[in-house]
Amino acid sequence: MPAPTAAALFALxxxxxxxxxxxxxxxxxxxxxAITGVFISLLAPLPxxxxxxxxxxDASWWDGRAIGFFILAGLSGPACSRVFLYLSLHHLGVxxxxxxxxxxxxxxxxxxxxxxxxxxxPHVWAGTLLIxxxxxALSYKKTSDTSWSRRHLWLIxxxxxxxxxxxxxxxxxxTAVNAPVLGVTVSSLAGLxxxxxxxxxxxxxxxxxxxxAKAWAFYGSCGLLNGAGFLTQFYxxxxxxxxxxxxxxxxxxxxxxxxxxxxLRGTERVTKLIVWGTVLIVxxxxxxxxxxx
Length: 293
What we know:
The protein has 293 residues and is an all-alpha fold. 75% of the residues lie in helices and 0% in strands.
């Protein structure tokens, strides 16, 4: 199978796992705060990652430059982006947060062009217009709608920017050493370490707490799904360009929107505006990925 095709398939697998994990985050919000959920979701798949890394270890893996970039990816990805994504899911809901994460390809493509020398064509601008239009639709709020507040939109903004930098660091690391299992293991360990350092700076109500059994069940399952998505994305980035992989990974809103309709009928209100905004954003991501054809 050609590498670009394999990268696309891994990226689509990532979108499915990320869409499913967003539903579990929403369902588990009554059992633990967002930061506790981050810790559990990082810890749950970590033993599997460590075991796989030890089993597959190779002498070429021990490259200081690659490991350094994997650590930076853990700082910007799990440690920063994940925290603000969880907070966004709690405050804005799945149907609004997950589509807004689709603006990530815009920033990741810009970084890839500036740092990696990737040269996406003019279709990126058409995709960008669709993404911006879709985000405007998702951000529109009627006066009578009290289910969410615009003051929480900055949370997803920070998450998106941190994710874009994380993708760049992952690609730089994988260019030096194409070892996705090593990457996901080091990045997860780094993410847990930096989250621990940030704990004293967190508001008291948001600090990690000793979780109960239900929190472990919800966020543990979420962590396994998210860990699978994390790993497939590393494989995709090892095989394809950032400007192709990340837009395809951003089709997760289709899965999260479908699952929210099936599982969150009593919690989430999915309006026509949200549906059309999601369609526009994902269509924009598809145009950015047009170079794959």
